[in-house]
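Posting this for the archive.
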Amino acid sequence: MTHEQTLTDEHAPSRHGQSQPEPMTVCQKILHNHRIVSQTDGSQLLHVDRIYMDESAYNCLFQLREKGLTVPRPADKYLMVSHLAPTFDRAAGPTDPEIKRVFALLDEFASEYGIDVLRYDDDRQGIYHVVAPERGITLPGLIVTGTDSHMTSHGGVGALGISVGYDEAVHILNTNALWQDPRSSMAIHIIGNLPAGSAPKDLALYTISQIGAHGGHGHCIEFFGPAVDALGIEGRMTLCNMMLEAGAWAAIVPPDHKTIRYFEGLPNSPKGELWNQAEAYWGTLRPDPDAHYVETVTLDAADVVPMVSWGIKPDQVIPIHEQIPEVQVDGDGDNGITEALRYMNLKSGMPIEGLKIDQVFIGSCTNGRIEDLRVASDILRGRKAVVPGLVTPGSTAVRIQAEKEGIDRVFLDAGLLWGEAGCSLCFGHHDSVVSPGNRCASTTNRSFPGRQGPGSMTHLMSPAMVAAASITGKITDVRKLRVIR
């Protein structure tokens, strides 16, 4: 039985039946199961199970047309509107002529090549790092690719998510295959348990602070340990999502019983005997006892407290009770601290707690899932925000569920805006930006200059921490709010 028969009723030609050459990591097993051919330099041509494209991918489709190329198996290709999806008044549609043109091109190409397009007015719409897992399009053990950088998110459900450029996307669209250089794996074992008040986002930020912005460079980070096992699937996706910010090529949590339960009954999950075969295959996705990791890091979840980014790099993050670090110059410079302090208008030695913020944002592919909104709404219920803010679900399905539970009313009653599903204020374009010179407490994944709008300043934190900041108007330890409530 081949891997492709495990998960679908037809796929690319079989390239399996090869004996496993040596003990393998989880990442190596998935690569091995998808290998079509290898080169002497160790590079491999891999079968790709899915490719996801956002609005910018119409550039790829132009190339297809110009080169006269076809798109075999269009059912495994998806166009999902998220970056340019209107945050408000979606029934009226976009007003910007250029955005209208892009959407028209997506419809045209989708019709021409038979690719499914999830428009901004489709109930399946959303950020594909949220939509694909929640619908069972991404599945454990698959290789899924996308034209957005945070494909690492899909490792939270045991898939290998690979970000690709436009030229690579054209190749995948036409061949269902991708060349990859040799890849190594890095193991991160997280022992202990997350303390009360600490969230998966805090664990992700803490991990980056410990291994550095380049600590996972070129590796697939594989997560293990009781703290990882204890995370829900959505928390695992948050953890893997952020590992791109540590330079990782991919990140993955081996699938377990929680993963299997998550996929039961989803619209695109395997059914019947295919489900039994898939479940059996997923059970093989554990590292072999003697698998080789280029590095093994052990962290203790008990050390994780609410974390806040203070700078413009992903490892410029500190616990809520600490101060902005001092500038220390060595042979490699000051690690960008001076530049960060200047841009963020901060000084060394300042406490991060109590820093005034101007607005808040809850959403994105990092923290726009239903559990994130539930946690934030729990903090805000019965309270009022003292700064403006926006909440956008990661998918329309999340929005519908949140409205069913009355979560939208909690945000609205607190004085925050409730938007439609999409990327929205995460990247500061289209109809949602942070004004120059303003600070935003945000659940997103990047804080580099101008990310949420020209001249804007972003402080990354968990949904609960952002909710707390909205209530106090400053960066606040959410654990103190929980105590006094």
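The two ends are 56 Å apart (CA to CA). The chain is about 35% helix and 15% strand.
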